[in-house]
Amino acid sequence: MKEIQIATQLIGAKHKPFIIAEMSGNHNQSLERALDIVDAAAAAGVNGLKIQTYTADTMTLNINTNEFLINDTTSLWHGQSLYKLYEKAHTPWEWHKPIFDRCKQLGIIGFSSPFDITAVDFLESLDVPCYKVASFENTDLPLIRKIASTGKPMIISTGMATVAELDETVQVAHNAGCEQLILLKCTSTYPATPNNTNILTIPHMRDLFNLQVGLSDHTLGLGVSVASIALGASLIEKHFTLSRSHGGVDSAFSMEPSEMKALVLETQRAWQALGTIYYGPTDSEQKSLKFRRSLYAIDDIAEGEVFSVSNIRAIRPGYGLPTKYIDKIIGKQAKTTIQKGTALTWDLL
């Protein structure tokens, strides 16, 4: 499986998980808060911080009726128009450079999701190191071509996409010049629940497309992300905020700093635990072998005395004969006097 390189970071099975904090609209229209989010993400140990590049006008029309309203009563954004939601959530373009500069200062990778071709041109002027395609844009083939033509790594969330749609998207990206591509398993509900996340898709997707695969995780907590590492995910993206209590368009399903720090730690532990297929004692287990059970004299045994369950037994430590030989030893005679607590060896029979 080909490794991916974003700036100085390598992404793949041989490297610890690449963790992305997604700011989205959690800046609540404050640049100061946006920069505080960058600071908190870096302190939590993430590898990258992602924002989104669009305006309400590049996303939709300023219409407050019919299909331009969010009518789903279960939605976090029920009752809002698309235009008003995107107006509230967008990151002003003049903030991008200060945010990316802060990322560089703190040693993390700053990048963005462009939502139309003008956003790609703008991000190119800032020389971003990579691009992320949101699930809702993963079938926008003109946008995919535009991003791919930059020659930079591309991360694509796969929410809602069929296998046929993903195949078309991957082929378009490759044909347009993208040589480094990562797919993210994603469920496009906000929040998502563990039972509709289907992370068993991760190894299937990886084998199907022969690409690095990660997870864009909209569930609450750490469990789904940590489990995905065991299935081969090499990248995790989670929405991030300073505090859910501060509100905001995405705060309800975003991680707080202490949770993000735990995610970085626990996904790294999960990755370390994968190891290799291995049987037998590891180097670190060699000292523990002595605590296996083995055969010992549990009473003083005279020369010529018959071994029986009354004078020998399987106990710890493991310096004596393996316990599997007890039936062969019972009934044999002691060759010499044996003191209680002596490990049995063949030369004592």
- The parts where pLDDT drops under 50 for at least 5 residues are none
N- to C-terminal separation?
Answer: 58 Å
Oligomeric form: single chain
CATH class of the largest domain: Alpha Beta
Describe the structure.
It comes from Leptothoe kymatousa TAU-MAC 1615. This is Pseudaminic acid synthase. Keywords: Transferase. The protein has an 8-stranded parallel beta sheet. A two-stranded antiparallel sheet has the order 1-2. It has a two-stranded antiparallel sheet with strand order 11-12. By secondary structure, the protein is of the alpha/beta class. It has helices at 31-44, 56-59, 82-89, 93-106, 117-125, 141-148, 163-175, 201-209, 223-230, 257-274, 326-329; strands spanning 4-6, 9-11, 18-22, 48-53, 109-114, 131-133, 154-157, 181-186, 212-217, 235-239, 294-297, 312-315.
Give me some keywords for this one.
single chain; 349 residues; alpha/beta; TIM Barrel; Type Iii Antifreeze Protein Isoform Hplc 12; 2 domains; 8-stranded parallel beta sheet; two-stranded antiparallel ribbon; 11 helices; 12 strands; 31% helix; 16% strand; elongated
